Sequence to fold (301 residues):
Amino acid sequence: MATAVMTTLDPKSRAASRGLSDISIRNLFIIPTIVFLIVFNIFPLIYSLGYSFTDFRASTNAPAKFVGLANYRALLNDPFIWSNFAITAKYVIVSVTGQVLVGFGVAMLLNRAIPFKGLITTLLLLPMMLSMAVVGLFWKLLYDPSWGVINYVLGLGNFEWLSNPDMALYAIAITDIWMWSPFVMLLSLAGLSAVPKHLYEAAAIDRAGSLYTFFRITLPLVAPILMIAIIFRTMEAFKTFDLAYILSSQPTTEVISIRLYKMAFQEWQTGMSCALAYIVLIMVLAITNIYVKYLNKVKER
Fold:
């Protein structure tokens, strides 16, 4: 029966008149997608992996020389690379934590009957629909020490946000929080709307307090979808480039992606930069794997 459904068409359909089966139509859609992924994703991935074991430089015509794991050893023993990773880790922690707190807090406020709820939610989603370059330039104007709106509103005078080595990274993180908190808010709203109402009614009958209801009902049930938001935002924050590159050029804001860009396109250390890209990839996969394991434990509770 299943085979008949998969391989036969309505005799009156146009596809049947052309002699196409369901499987043929399925393959017409799937095969181009697979070819696209192989050409533009898998092939460059394997190609760059080969270059990571060479001393190849794209700026010269010299043939690539196989150096084995020398590039990886040099990178892992470079204190400046570890400094870039430390900056990236600090940025990820500040940015993702801020997004979760702001996004989940706004979702809690919107998870009730309020006037123009749909319009407000739509407006709050606008930041994450903007281009990273546009957001970076927009916030660069807001941070301007002479006539930026942020200093005026906070009464900070001519405070330097992006030129201050101690504040520049936090300024970039604030911009990222503003842009991507709506993503966390959207997922959190989906999780909050799925919480059964009878649980809150039972808690109200038992005269449970707000904190007890939040920590015993709301947070445990929303935790799985909140973890999914954290996984996605951690991966993206670890790879961030646009905002950091546009907003500041301080050494304290040189996240690992900027170091990778400079190594590949300014210093033309192609083989070394490919090795660094794979080190970043392995770290992102390791962090994601830890999150996924924790997510599975949360789902089991």
Summary: Residues 75 and 81 are 7 Å apart (CA to CA). Residues 1-7 have pLDDT under 50 and may be disordered. The chain is about 70% helix and 0% strand.
